[in-house]
Amino acid sequence: MGTPLAASPDNGAPTGACAALIPTLEGICGADHVISEPRELKTYECDGLTAHRTAPALVVLPEEAEQVAAIVRACAEAGVPFVARGSGTGLSGGALPRSDGVLIVTSRMRRVLEVDPRSRRAIVEPGVTNLAVSKAVEPYGFFYAPDPSSQVVCSVGGNVAENSGGAHCLKHGFTVHHVTGLEIVTPDGELTWLGDGTGVSPGYDLLGAFTGSEGTLGIVTKVVVKLTPLPEMVRTLLAAFESTSQGGTAVSGIIGAGIVPAAIEMMDALAIEAAEAAVHCNYPAGAGAVLVVELDGPASEVEAEAAAVRERCEQAGAGEIRSADDPADRARIWAGRKSAFAAVGRISPAYIVQDGVVPRTALSGILGRIAELSSAREGVRVANVFHAGDGNLHPLVLFDDRIEGAGEAAEEVSGAILDLCIEAGGSITGEHGVGVDKAKYMPKMFGPTDLDTMQFLRCAFNPRNLCNPGKVFPTPRLCGEVPGVRHGPPPAVAAGELEQF
Amino acid sequence: MTAAGAEAIAVALAGTGAEVRPAEPSDVVGGVLPSCVASPATVDQAAGVMAAAAGLDLAVVPRGSGDTISWGWPPARCDVVADLSGMDQVLEYAAGDLVVKVQAGVRLGQLAEILAEKGQRLALDGPPGVTVGGAVARNAAGPLRLRYGLPRDLLIGITIVRPDGALAHAGGKVVKNVAGYDLGKLFAGSQGTLGLIVETTFRLHPLPDLSAYVIEEYRESAAAAEAVLAAAASPLQPSAVELERARVGGPIRVATLLEGTPSGVSARAERMRTLLGRSAETMMAAPDWWGRTGEASPSGMTTVVAGGTLVRVAFWAAELRPVLDAIDTVAGEAGVAVSVGGSAGAGVLYALLAAGQDPGQVAVFVRALRAATGHAAGPDGGGLARGSVVVLTAPAAVLEAADPWGPVPSLGLMRAVKQQFDPGHLMSPGRGPGGI
After folding, report:
1. What is the extent of the structural domain holding B215?
2. Is residue B94 over pLDDT 60?
3. Is residue B196 within 8 Å of residue B168, measured between CB atoms?
4. Which chain A residues are within 8 Å of B388, Cβ to Cβ?
5. Domains of chain A with bracketed CATH
6. B429 occurs within a structural domain
7. For B130-183, what is each residue's pLDDT tens digit?
8. Closest-CA residue in chain A for B259?
């Protein structure tokens, strides 16, 4: 069906190929689960990054994997682009809809299908929230380790797309380390499994390559996750320092002592001020930096490591050190850190959250350069919150959007911070993803051949580029001859040089 | 069959600056004698070799230590062996960042020594002579996999030479990084079929202050399996839970590795002993069978396999007892002698069938084990396979009688990936599943 694609008219109602799809999609999911009313579509115009907005032509809410496959087949046949969306908490516009396309929302696919505590595995649907997985397996003594800060609402399917981490990924790793099987719908509408749940599936590690591909290689419909035994003890320490550089010295000392804490977080004075204003977290007064270190594991190890961490913090000049074991006390320590992003709203009318990474040992130098950047810009301040253990910075660039030009200045500072990260040998994103927001920075981090080679993978899965187009890569590569699934024996077999069994 | 004469090949490749020599009998790859061996010393030379080979339509097989070069299906063609063992430079070691970037020819043993000076390690088992490139290309792991995963889990950056000679990078040198597709995952385990791995960057871990092994022996597979599952699910955080049974029907030994601070490890070992059984013992050194039967054996794969057959059985851990019993039963029916070992806690066992057994019966064992464990055909309707039985290496006669790969999920997508990266089918052709 070579129906020409038409953008939505001004009233937002779908036209052309998308309008023609409505009866088919209603047949698949039921009329209640296909949205074409412009006002309702507007709900889906952005994810957690509100700077990018586009209402989709249609929204469809399937409940079963087979329905997702049928929807994708219908889109592929009509040549209509489609984008998958979980809970819409992404921070890079990875689930930004297409005005000429279908948005496939997985929020109704939220069953925990199987918990196998003896194998330490669970199978869940993509719309299940991250925290719901941990809740479902807690009675068996397990948890699901990746814990992005949005874990109460974010979906496991979205976590797979973004390869989400979280505060505790320093020790426990990312989503890709905890997913051992994925049922996906390929961009031509076929259901298939990547991996077999064991973690050592034969052949190419398509599961690993798919995880973190930001929805550009297909749509996840089932996820096999690894379950981690609940730690026997969790201890959270809070240490206050005069400066971030003292805090940095403590972090180096901890890492140098051979300790891998579950998390090491740092906040600078401005971030502390904001958190204090928002949640009265009662961090030590006048601190130039606070460090939150969390240790988990067997009680005997946590005790030994906590003593070493305390010693390193004292050596680095820590003023006050607090320590907590029970969940309520630990939550009080975390409150300030967890509120930081929202809290800056109290001290600034507008802000940009950045996500860059530098080698951990380059942190102090980078913080100095960030301070120079913001002081050179009238009306722009930067509050720093970061995962200090792995060099993942979340500078919050604060500005007053009522002042003309302030937004542009903040954008410039934000972009310059990424340049610093690249210069230091780091990355333009540690956990938020590239999406639409950072596609333009990709050529700064990777050469044209690198990007071209990555797109070999995209071309193998998604040669027509209908599946979440416009994300990750600044320039889509033409895939040439559509390879698809080859039929017949491989050339070597056909030539009689190799027997096939 | 080569596309160009040996002389022309040598001339074209020598122009790249890489050392080139005619192949000798010891350079044979799975029975196929290449025309020559090219040994690049730099990334640029490696790229030159690949470009020149592509220009002449030559098939290339990468080689590291060469220890496992002949494992699996022989290549359909092999004109050039690209020997990366000379690319053995540690490029960047940032101890404070727990990151190291090395050329692919660096050996695990050589790297371990350098890292140990700073109290660190690459948490990867393997014979000291194996190259990091080889370890990544095979994605081979040993006991530490339970806690630290496979090479793909430790790899954070990669430089590859594509079959057309172009150099490409993915990942980087920071652990936390989600920019772009993670081609490292794709190349880990690609077994030389997608391109040449020339540089790798890994995340490192601190060397533990103390390691202790808690060991127990069981007569019944049921008791052994319960002990393994309990240890792996315990909050005692074992780094490895291994099992070995030297002969069918023989006693089953289980050992767990605990790593950490001296006081922490002593306390954990005491509790692990209670978990494993009354006569469990704690040792400060690994038992002699530790990691021996597997694909990352400390004693080197040539020694371990010695002309025999090595089969990897992967399963969901709860299936441990049925898998152990199936190996016993099937070996008895096929009339073959089998020793079993591996990372039982992580759901991976290896069956080793010593050399000299009837290849037909060994093939019967493989096929019957697939049937007994439910992996003879793909699951109904393309469902979740939940395991596999893969022949890693075997005498040619066995490979002719039993597909070493067995059913592989998503083979169509794998073919599409191969087609994109290597449209000319020049990289280790025919060695992957389905003849990829």
Report:
1. 210-283
2. yes
3. no
4. 196, 198, 200-202
5. 16-105 (3.30.43.10), 112-229 (3.30.465.10), 231-344 (3.30.70.2190), 348-433 (3.30.70.2740), 435-456+468-476 (no CATH)
6. no
7. 999 999 999 999 999 999 999 999 999 999 999 999 999 999 999 999 999 999
8. A301
